[in-house]
User: Fold this.
Amino acid sequence: MSEINREAVAHLARLAHIEMTDAELDRMAGELDVIVDSIKSVQEAAGDDVPATSHPIPLTNVFREDVVGETLTNEQALSGAPDSADGRFKVPAILDEE
Amino acid sequence: MTAVTDEILSFDEAMEKYDPVLGFEVHVELNTKTKMFSAAPNIFGDEPNTAISPVDLGLPGVLPVVNKAAVEYSIMIGLALNCKIAESCFFARKNYFYPDTPKNFQTSQYEDPICYDGYLDIELEDGEVFRVEIERAHMEEDAGKLTHMGGATGRIQGAEYSLVDYNRAGVPLVEIVTKPIVGAGSRAPELAKAYVAAIREIVKNLGVSDARMERGNVRCDANVSLMPKGTSTFGTRSETKNVNSLRSVERAVRFEIQRHAAVLDSGAKVTQETRHWHEDTRTTTSGRPKSDADDYRYFPEPDLVPVVTTPEWIEELRSRLPEPPAERRKKLKAAWGYSDAEFRDVLNAGVMDAIEETIAAGASAAVARKWWMGEISRRAKEAEVDPVDVGVTPELVVELDKLVQAGKINDKLARQVLDGVLAGEGTPEEVIAKRGLAVVSDDGPLLEAIDAALAAQPDVAEKIRGGKVQAAGAIVGGVMKATRGQADAGRVRELIFERLGVQG
Amino acid sequence: MTELIRNSAARLAELLAAKEVSSVEVTQAHLDRIAEVDGSVNAFLHVNTEEALAVAADVDKARAAGEDLPVLAGVPIAIKDLIVTVGQPTTAGSKILEGWMSPYDATVIKKIRAAKMPMLGKTNLDEFAMGSSTEHSAYGPTRNPWDLDRIPGGSGGGSAAAVAAFEAPLALGTDTGGSIRQPASVTGSVGVKPTYGGVSRYGAIAMASSLDQIGPVSRTVLDSALLHEVIGGHDPHDSTSLTDPVGALAEAARNGDVRGLRIGVVRELQGEGYDAGVQERFDESLELLRGAGAEIVEVSCPNFRYALGAYYLIMPSEASSNLAKFDGVRYGQRVLPTDGPLTIERVMGATRAAGFGDEVKRRIILGTYALSAGYYDAYYGSAQKVRTLVQRDFDAAFAQADVLISPTAPTTAFKLGEKLDDPLAMYLNDVATIPANLAGVPGISVPGGLADGLPVGIQFLAPAREDARLYRVGHVLESLLEEKWGGPLLAQVPDLSASTAETMSGAN
Ligand SMILES: [Mg+2]
Ligand SMILES: [Zn+2]
Assistant:
């Protein structure tokens, strides 16, 4: 067994903002454990001298000129909103301050 | 109001025992035409949720594209801060959930900032120069704006719900981070203010930001920690957010030094946490302790490609830099003919730009200084804000001055006109009309008032007739009182002498 | 009009150009077919009847007026429901986006509109494209037209099944680890993953940004080439979009020739784990290609054995971040917590708990884990290094061969539900397709025949930006096999209209 237990999954679920029941946490911990065990061999594959690749086709300096383009109307912006008021998106109280 | 529970030590006592270590993260909003990663306009104060594209709303499927001007402005800021410019850098995602952050991650820079290892020489009020080292200046995007509704004070605590406007989401930011600033001692609060003022001046001078703190164009997070005197290990720091005026920066740093000192004196440990500055109580309150929720899971932004700079590009940008603020100050001082003391006062009051704009709008250097250092500064002190935040525009100063020059009002009335304008009663002309403030220039009513005043004080009248012209002041005062200040004092004086047949 | 729907897109374009049929007739025939068989196939999540017919009528009018029209004007197409469209709902196969209407079009949709192709509707997929069987759709699984009890592959099972069931001549798919090629393989259709950056991703709901690519789904190699030419090309809205011109892909398909072509058999993408039937069809194809003048060489890509692991770290990592935006604040469903205080944090938690299915949650948690403090270097960092090694393997292989060949998937279509409770077994379906996504190189799957009555796919891979080679070699193999079979493989697909009723009763 690796380090993925219920507590670890609970922490990850909090970070990912997904509520989970205890049963879900247990099941997820078991599944992740198996998955991580099967993929952690990647750690042996490459040494320190191998650079990381984050883009499959390397490009650089892709820029946009500073020219105003199309915008959404307020109606378009709010068209999919679960709740809104005064032209703005409405959300329940925020408890945790950033 | 915010409950004040923290003990504080007097500043002097704190300074006897501890050395403060400061650190600043200053966010500068760039004034590009469009946003950092979308072509939506970067404008202030538009109707909510209209200055946005699908990208700024984080709609499914959208992708960012970097604004070239924002990159160039960032490099220019780096150059002005004596930074090195990265040969290659990339964007990263900072993952955290918050409703003002449309994608629930902020596109920022992490490992590789575009600018790093710089410094800024800060001149304090008495001319002492203090070098602040810059760790990095990186590019990122601003968040939307939350308005908390239903609570008592518009604050987040107690609010029933919040409204989100994403117009500001995606506005380009440069975050300037200092290295720990050691050795400022008791001048730490002063240095804090001067540092932020210097950053503001630099970015404004570069033309890359409107740099208006009251609009949040320049925002400061201040880190404070203390070391017992004679030691050199940094203490635990607090990060005070929401310090958005120069005056607040100074006060917040001072308060945190006093608070930390009290905590350490009591034998307790300082908590590493975010604090919030409250201008009303001039205190900070505890925000959120550092927690495991602060795991931002940074990784390279896969939707963007690296930015690579060339020496030619950097030199081209360097050639665009305007003259540095110090040089500009020297020039302005000479042009305006202010004395050393006068000019330093202007700088300390933070009104140099305001004076420059006022002169540009048509006032003389003397008149501009008189207003900004006089009446406007007085009001600022009363309201405990910076003079530029009083609400007086350079144009208003010029307008008032014109009315005084034309003899329509005097200085005293001008202050009342200003009251009216600031109270929203309309233009100066409208206020004059509504409040009936015009100087009484028709000699008829004045002569009546003069006669009455002379008759009421025959002994004074006699003195004046006898050549004691300075005694006329008492009669002028009587006339001014009778006309409720609306008379032109100079004209009253002339008329008194005329009446009594003496030479003024 | 049954015969009409059996035409390839290229043939339909000819018939339309010659005014032998109208676009309204062609479009209506496909709509009729959808009405007839989609109750059992479930390839479509939304059928766009009105707009499709209106576009078709416009094309007919323009043609009657003698206007110059794009090649595929009037040829209908189905759109994977991961791609945002104005006027049609976009769900990504997820409950969290149920009923959502995009206020903007994806770049490929703008191109489809400019090409005047009527959009028949949106096709089913594994939720947020996460899966290899289309069983992870919140709107029920799509069924394989070859056997309605079997999976159509995934995540683009809807697009592949729609094409294989003659509900659409063309479809758009997206391919992050094989989601175009593997469904093509198990449905006997053709699917292409273009070079990364060859087709704009703007408007494709992102799963893993550095791996995702939109591509064509069709019944013939030429049709994919024609569609690829429509959707390809530079897009300033996508920073990873290549500036290269699309190239003459249809011409490459038409002039297919393998004489002197070096075809590299990837040693690591065959043998153990590959069904015997799959291996047989694969060997047969090799023989045919050799017979047509190709030089068959063996290449080794030793690091491919780490590819699956790297993929299952990079993909969930990027996905965990890409899917953070689905929080019930700006769009989509919002679910309130059933008890306790009503705060936005709890609303986000409840919305994402109710809105995402198990596989999506699994990948989000896995990705969150791989990126979290203390694990980044070991997992995400190592995976990105493997990516470098996989690219080096490709470089070495392409030094020896012009194109590479392998089976597209290790097995034929498995039964619905068979691997649903075994994520690892499910992940293995993509073992042969994933290396291309890690390295950004293009790949195609073409039908290679049947094993036990089920289609087998043959995959070709080419160096980045050499997509034309795929069409050249793909068309040759297709011709050789069709000659052998006496017609297209899909001519052998069971008659769905007959089997619909009985199979439906047995459906679970
Ligand atoms: Mg910060
Ligand atoms: Zn920042």
